[in-house]
Design goal:
- This protein has 85 residues and is mainly α.
- The chain has one domain.
- It has 2 helices and no strands.
- The longest helix is centred in the middle third of the chain and has 51 residues.
- The radius of gyration is 34 Å and the shape is elongated.
Amino acid sequence: MTPPDPTHEPAGDDTPPPTSLLYRNPFQIGFLLTLGGLLAFGMLAAIAALQSIVLMGVLSLFLALGLNPAVEWFVRRGAPAAWRS
């Protein structure tokens, strides 16, 4: 392998710089904006759907923790199983 010649510079890269998004095809810009809007709408809909599920879970946990002392009291007093369920 020969050492590089300092007087001879390597050939430059003649590829043009990448074009900005604003100079691309208008159809592509519209498609990407629509896709982003639909994605944002879908994420908001998913969060809204999960909100009711999480709320039900929190409420049921609160009720279970609140009623647990009463259930324990019935168990200690020897209440019939039909009353405890």
